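In the current project phase, our protein records have gained a structure token line. A sample record follows, to show the layout:
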Amino acid sequence: MIYFSKKIVIWAVIIAVAVVFAFLYKPGFVRDLLNYNLPRPTSLPTDSSLDFLTLPDGFAIRKFADGLDGPRVITFDSKDRMLVSETKAGRVIKLEDTDGDGSAETKTVLLKGLRSPHGLAFYEDPKTKKVYLYVAETHQVVRYVYNVKDGDIDEAQKTAPQNIANLPADGRHFTRTIAFGPNFRKEQIVAGQSEVNTQVPTKLYISVGSSCDVCVETETWKRAAILESDPDGKYTAEFAGGLRNSVFFTFHPETKEIWATDMGRDNLGDNLPPDEVNIIKVAEKGNKFGALRYGWPFCYGDKIRDKTFNPSKVDRIDIPTDCNQTESAAIELPAHSAPLGLAFITKDGGWPTEWRNDLLVAYHGSWNRSEPTGYKIVKFKVNEKGQSSGVEDFISGWLATNNQQPTTNNQIYGRPVDLKFGPGGNTLYISDDSAGVIYRVEPK
């Protein structure tokens, strides 16, 4: 028995060495073997040129800040300072363009030592007039009293923020995103059974991804969902479910409805299932599931059943296996595009008037497709009623290909993440967690 155990150890060492060698010297072989194909990052040009990117006529792109550590979510305080979450580094930083030249001259670490911080949002209490910075870590949402004048947080606040919501930590999808929006409910969530007022005018919405690729979540109802809370954190409830990984969401400028990107599951091939943009609505009174269900884990796209996922037992009665009881995607996106940030173009800011209400979506890019896809920003035509039709590339070129044909030798210049229009609505800011850059895009 001892001799057999030693053989296992020896073979394990040999296999481990072979895998490490293959990754170092034959990465394409390993990716092909595993059906993974994550293009290798390559450095941006040392000068300020971004000529490898293609934009529509009449637009210009430049770096606002570089040398960042995996920047993700962007937000602005009332003094136009930019705050950015560096999720893997556990920080929130502040970037300031002090001389107005379009580039950030100063970078300040506002918060550090956090646990995978991602979502950021500001809120001013209408009664006290205090301004709070909300930060979504993987396990919780907390808020800090924010000094608008100085753009800082007191040291005592940094070490003892107020907890707003407890969240399930980590998992396959560990980022949490937050945003304040209107209350869509017409009555108390549980009428007559709660002393907590859930009918507040402004709600905090929280997206929490699934713990797995495809499974039935049994440990908590807070996963694969968009949650809601009041600004003070007196309650947390499910707003919508069946959302595998809606990393980013925003609000339509006219309808005010929540629009959220969602990533489809893996291991169904290059072209299935579609990634999605969903319009997230509140369930009507008497809904049997308590909230609208957007398909995952049993359905995708236009109520299509995932025939490969057939667990022998489903303990939760609030998750439909019948796709007719789920909501269809508002927009189907190419599989494995990995949609993240999204932003609507408003009537302000000097952008083409015919683009009003059109939707921009950042494709972070595939990591497990035989031919890479994504690595760009696209624009969907959307009318004032929230109906979409037609799509075109807005910014492309982060995916560098040989002779314009995708191959396993692809390299990437970056991976776009968040899209945020700055104060005034003229400038679009884009975070890139691969190149460590914040870009700014504006009409010439």
Q: What stands out?
A: The first strand starts at residue 40 and ends at 41. The chain has three helices and 30 strands. The chain has two domains: 1-34, 47-443. The chain has a mean pLDDT of 90.
